[in-house]
Amino acid sequence: MSTGSMEQLYQQVILDHARTPHGKGLQEPVATVGESHQVNPTCGDEVTLRVELDTSAPEARVSRISWEGQGCSISQASISVLHDLVTGAGLGQVDDLAGTFRALMHARGAGLDEEAEDALGDATAFTGVAKYPARIKCALLGWAALQDALIKTGATTSQEDA
What DSSP state is assigned to residue 96? Predict the structure, then answer.
């Protein structure tokens, strides 16, 4: 696929997620829960993200993510994609995905290797965002909220640089 058509496909994925964001609407918690409110003061994007964990397995898993927020299509679509990626994932996998997404944002639009991009799925649509430093914080807003919310559950203590 040519670069131009890939960029169009990526833009379409972002627009689709921004129009119909997955997981939007805070849900009443039924399990171990952490909540975080994050704001990007540069552009006014904000999110309140609630993560629920299933701690019955040997490794805690994300059982549900719900969120409420406002902002540009990049921030809202990124949170929607995050919802799809981490719901059902174990905390180790969530850490790996968050690190891979941060690496994508620091790749300045060059993308990552095929294995990393396969793991990210729709999140690879944000490859082009990494060319614009002012937009990177928009794409990372939900990931910062997720990390903070997970720490608040007490199930994780890792404090990656978001």
Answer: H
